[in-house]
Write a sequence for this structure.
């Protein structure tokens, strides 16, 4: 299963620094271990990655749970990250999972 990084800030951060933290609605059991990344649905492979599920997060806990990770999210602040999450989810904050994604050398 592929992981899509449509947001250029998170994608560029991963490609530049080799690690990024990302929030997804998908359950952890579907997105752990070795995988590959792209920038859009049906997009070409950009790189192999390793995905680790960190924890499930309820909407009301997004700020305190994401705040320690925002510096490695590709965003300038936790608030910006949460705004992007909302914009990708029809302006609602979902329950979801925090993942650590590490770039693998090809």
């Amino acid at each position: 299963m592929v992981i899509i990084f449509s947001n250029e800030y998170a994608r560029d951060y991963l490609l530049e620094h080799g690690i990024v933290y990302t929030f997804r609605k998908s359950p952890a059991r579907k997105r752990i271990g070795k995988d590959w990344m792209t920038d859009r649905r049906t997009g070409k492979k950009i790189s192999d990655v390793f995905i680790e599920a960190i924890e499930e997060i309820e909407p009301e806990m997004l700020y305190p749970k994401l705040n320690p990770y925002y510096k490695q999210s590709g965003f300038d602040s936790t608030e910006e990250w949460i705004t992007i999450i909302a914009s990708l989810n029809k302006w609602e904050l979902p329950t979801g999972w925090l993942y650590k994604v590490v770039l693998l050398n090809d």
